[in-house]
Amino acid sequence: MTDTDPDRVPDPGTDTDVPGYSPDEIRTGESTRDARLKWVVVVDTALEPGRTVNAVACVASATGLAIAGLEGPSGADAAGHEHPGLPWAGCTVLGASAERLATVHAKAVAAPGVWMADMPLSAQTTRVYDDYLRELAATDPADLAVCALSLVGPRAAVDAIVKKLRLL
User: Fold this and answer.
1) Could you list the residue range(s) of the whole structural domain that residue 57 is in?
2) Where is composition skewed (Basic and acidic residues) in this entry (predicted)?
């Protein structure tokens, strides 16, 4: 597989630009604050509720695929029904104005060790994925109009990037 292969699953042992957890770092019996990495999603507070939820779900989906060891083990309820694993290290969802979101985006791009998935508004306004990809390819990065982004990286670096944003 190559870096452009859409089915590629990153390996934290070989992908130096994609953070992740090794099996010995997955500690589901400890506080999420003890995790080495921090995961936050930042969304534009001007979005309508349905678009907000959609944007958060989409960047979270991309994050779950990219970050090794993020998902905890599945578990059974009292009746024995199995429930899929959820992110064991937690995820904080924050809100920001479009202007502040653009600043967070720029800081994340420049921060070493911080991985980001972003969702341009065009992803919500096109109904055919290939159309979205064509529009994305023709859009200057400064004009993306990002409506949500997901950051994973060293706790201190992520905290500095999202400093003073409010919890949703």
Assistant:
1) 37-71+86-167
2) 1-10
